[in-house]
Write a structure and sequence with these properties.
It is a single chain. The chain is mainly alpha-helical. The chain has one domain (about 20-40, about 55-190): Arp2/3 complex 21 kDa subunit ARPC3. The chain is built from seven helices and two strands, in the order H-E-E-H-H-H-H-H-H. The chain has helices spanning about 20-40, 55-65, 70-85, 100-120, 125-150, 155-165, 170-195, and strands at about 40-45, 50-55. It has a two-stranded antiparallel sheet with strand order 1-2. The radius of gyration is 18 Å and the shape is globular. The two termini are about 35 Å apart. About 45% of the residues are buried.
Length: about 200
């Protein structure tokens, strides 16, 4: 009878630090606040109700760094606190009304997707990290665009032209930035770890 050691699941970036409950709570709250801060980088466009913001970059980074559970909790906290009145949505807004609320709900899915892919080591190389960020953005739009269509009483094609097409280049840039950041952070962690051993 042969025995093999159980396979260990690869961790995400924050698994390299303390795993205490206090640390996890701080990470979840901190990531929500980070996305809230990036939401204040907001440019309103005249032809669409959807602003250009820094939120998506924060969601992608938080998802990959925290893993799917903490990222989902963090983005859910971000949304729920904003609905409850914390003015940290784009332009210091809060509440659940509006055509862009689907994007906020999509953040939960985007965080979960990028976190799940990071746990499978998709955050270790630039190409795979960028691809996982694009997958996270796809999950976001899968929720955001139908919500936008329903809110504006337009067809899905019109919602895509209002809520996706103007943002493709910016989203690709955000995915690339996040895709560059995570592998670089892992190299720093691995270098530090090897120096301490």
């Amino acid at each position: 009878m042969s025995t093999t050691a159980p396979l260990t699941r690869p961790g995400v970036l924050v698994d390299t630090i303390s795993a205490s409950t206090t640390a996890n709570v701080a990470l979840v709250v901190g990531a929500a606040a980070f996305v809230g801060a990036l939401a204040q980088i907001s440019i309103h466009l005249s032809f669409t109700p959807v602003p250009v913001t820094g939120q998506t970059l924060g969601v992608l980074l938080a998802g990959a760094a925290l893993g799917w559970r903490r990222a989902s909790l963090s983005m859910a906290l971000y949304v729920l606190a904003g609905v409850a009145g914390v003015p940290w949505f784009a332009g210091h807004a809060s509440g659940a009304a509006g055509a862009t609320f689907g994007y906020l709900l999509g953040f939960v899915a985007a965080g979960a997707v990028t976190g799940a892919l990071a746990a499978r080591r998709h955050d270790r190389t630039v190409a795979r990290a960028a691809a996982s960020m694009i997958a996270g953005e796809a999950a976001l739009y899968a929720i955001a665009l139908p919500w936008l269509a329903l809110s504006l009483h337009v067809g899905l094609a019109r919602a895509i032209s209002l809520g996706f097409v103007p943002f493709v280049i910016g989203d690709l840039i955000k995915a690339l930035l996040a895709g560059l950041t995570l592998p670089a952070a892992w190299r720093v962690v691995e270098r530090s770890s090897s120096e301490n051993n």
